[in-house]
Amino acid sequence: MRYGLVGSTGRMGQEIQKAFVDHTLCLTVNYEGSWSDGGKPDVIMDFSNPSCLPETVRLCREHGAALVIGTTGLKDSDFEMLRELARQVAVVQSYNFSIGINALKIILANYSKFFEDWDLEIVEIHHNKKKDAPSGTAIMLQNATGRPCPMHSLRIGGVPGDHNVIFSNEGEVLSFNHRAISRSVFAYGALRAAEFAATAKPGLYSFEEVLQCSLKKS
Amino acid sequence: MRYGLVGSTGRMGQEIQKAFVDHTLCLTVNYEGSWSDGGKPDVIMDFSNPSCLPETVRLCREHGAALVIGTTGLKDSDFEMLRELARQVAVVQSYNFSIGINALKIILANYSKFFEDWDLEIVEIHHNKKKDAPSGTAIMLQNATGRPCPMHSLRIGGVPGDHNVIFSNEGEVLSFNHRAISRSVFAYGALRAAEFAATAKPGLYSFEEVLQCSLKKS
Amino acid sequence: MRYGLVGSTGRMGQEIQKAFVDHTLCLTVNYEGSWSDGGKPDVIMDFSNPSCLPETVRLCREHGAALVIGTTGLKDSDFEMLRELARQVAVVQSYNFSIGINALKIILANYSKFFEDWDLEIVEIHHNKKKDAPSGTAIMLQNATGRPCPMHSLRIGGVPGDHNVIFSNEGEVLSFNHRAISRSVFAYGALRAAEFAATAKPGLYSFEEVLQCSLKKS
Amino acid sequence: MRYGLVGSTGRMGQEIQKAFVDHTLCLTVNYEGSWSDGGKPDVIMDFSNPSCLPETVRLCREHGAALVIGTTGLKDSDFEMLRELARQVAVVQSYNFSIGINALKIILANYSKFFEDWDLEIVEIHHNKKKDAPSGTAIMLQNATGRPCPMHSLRIGGVPGDHNVIFSNEGEVLSFNHRAISRSVFAYGALRAAEFAATAKPGLYSFEEVLQCSLKKS
């Protein structure tokens, strides 16, 4: 796979380069300038910031390249731009490229009904610099279960992010536990999204849809 | 629901009576003798031993009662008897009535493909009286993932039974953890099976199928 | 060891008999009546209720037997009675005979200073019938650390009782996790207390002191 | 505190600079050359490699600076050099500067006797690049308990390093769980060692002794 990278010198750009080590970086865009090996990328990765989006979209059109976009803080007008582009190429957009969290969301949405008469509580643990509680991910997981429940937020040390969804009845406990090991967590999800987008039909996809599609392939 | 109970004085029979506290026991069968309030049971529970099966089946036919059977060590001829009965009434047969373990088996069978390029290991913990390792449940869960993996068996103190199925890649860990709290674990599953069987069409069902059916109801 | 048991027919009395299977029950006291094999007990166990205490103390004096008392709700006048008795025989009194919890309390009291610049939070999990939160044990453990900290109480299913004391700094997490498996948890601690009391000098001992003494023996 | 840093441009040197952000770096030594602000350091940090040791020792003597050394693979002749230096200044030497692991080692050495009739097993989890099993840290913790026990090694994904020491009897489980979050784990321990060394009497100290001393201060 040949890929382009918007924001290649930033922290996220560097994590992506590590995870994409078996693929060819052929185009970069940075504040300092751009570079290209002259060939066409199959997919362009953009985990930078909304102000870069117009240039990113222009490059996707120019090269007929798919787009994987993990930029946060997108506005309605940004989504409009993405929908336009998605008529021409595959676009994968998500605010959370963790494979584990997205898989868990799908599993909870499909199977929480098994446990509808069990008790449910969620515990999440993050580093002590994190200001909001509960975490956005914890709220997303709770929504996936389809019912309110007590949430517990621990803010300790340098923990990157644990999420535990715990069901229990009189005789048993079943818990779904996710631990982010490091910042590279999103980069491996981005790689899976890129591999999907490089061959997918035009359209706007969520990361959950990318995962769901992987189930259909034998 | 009105239910009959084969082996009502045994340990399992007593756990069932505790879990079925909102339902009416109307028939019991024991080595010491039998008792009936004269009415018909909707379902008969048998968690005793294979030698009781012919009498159990006879009672189901006599009353048109469904059957939930958790007896272990059934032979081919016993299954033949159950299939016969299943033409007339609903029969639920399983060696493991834990809701959590059966739910986990379904989830792993359906979604392990998300993690096919992640590492996988299973850890199970049981009391120090347990002789076999890995546990039958651990093997069943591993089969559900569709691939071999390292298994670790701890045999310590009085732990009733923990099973942890752990997936990990470079950036995250997702683990599915089940803990049996007590012997009552199976009785609550048996209750769910009984509620299903009391209104189901004739047929031979696994406990997994009972759970799957609960997903279809809104 | 020969032991007497006040309240032998109650739930706690039965758990004690299971844990004391290698020792000889030679005296019982119940509402229904008393029984003795005619010989002297080395120690008398009382996990019943405060109203039995005068008779228990009388029996200890009569036989020169040590006392292990786990009765809850003792009043000042009850403690006065125990201090009196302790001039003559060894008396072990505690509201919590869990070896693990008492060991953890000692460890936290001695070593929390290692982590004085780390974050600290406590998570405890109990069954959904438990009304108070946080649990008395969680408060006791927090006191042992010598500093206030956030406490999280989960009330789910039939969990007998988990306590997790979690320290973390930027680079590591150290947690001390206790799980009660069953009601027998206290009976094994009571056995250790009885073995101590049977040979100890007269005096009033806490269960922590019993454990501390076990460290001094080689 | 004013500190010198041997190997300031290496990965470990950079982690140390992050952890020592409230202190003044006044001297660096690298293959590329050396730098000094002209003043005296209170302590010199060396987490580089054995070949740098003679120059490090020379600098400690010149400045009367204490030494914290975490270099691995030291030979007898290197220890001889450290013992010589320790007549003049405080020297802290360890192969593992994790506060949590060293604290756990002390706790297990002092209190495993509480659980001498309980079962014991150790589970450690590391990334799939780690070749040896069980880990050196797991062996060290087992030695601290004073008895052999089953060890389980998981090698999955990118886990930096978990160690769980699990005791259990019939009624309860007590586990001591350590998780390394990141490579910075050793840098915070090194900081504690430096703060100790800067004011300690001459002598050769282990990191365990540094921790033990912190208990004596009120």
TrEMBL record, chains A, B, C, D:
Subcellular location: Cytoplasm
GO molecular function: 4-hydroxy-tetrahydrodipicolinate reductase; NAD binding; NADP binding; oxidoreductase activity, acting on CH or CH2 groups, NAD or NADP as acceptor
Domain called Dihydrodipicolinate reductase C-terminal: residue spans: 100-211
Binding sites annotated in the UniProt record for NAD(+): G7, S8, T9, G10, R11, M12, G70, T71, T72, S94, Y95, N96, F97
EC number: 1.17.1.8
Dihydrodipicolinate reductase N-terminal domain location: 40-97
Pfam families assigned to the protein according to its UniProt record, in alphabetical order: DapB_C (PF05173), DapB_N (PF01113)
Residues the entry annotates as binding (S)-2,3,4,5-tetrahydrodipicolinate: H127, G136, T137
Keyword Oxidoreductase: yes
Major subcellular site: cytoplasm
Stated role: Catalyzes the conversion of 4-hydroxy-tetrahydrodipicolinate (HTPA) to tetrahydrodipicolinate.
Assembly and binders: Homotetramer.
Name of the featured protein: 4-hydroxy-tetrahydrodipicolinate reductase
Organism listed in the record: Acetomicrobium mobile (strain ATCC BAA-54 / DSM 13181 / JCM 12221 / NGA) (Anaerobaculum mobile)
Lineage of source species: Bacteria, Thermotogati, Synergistota, Synergistia, Synergistales
Recorded name of the encoding gene: dapB
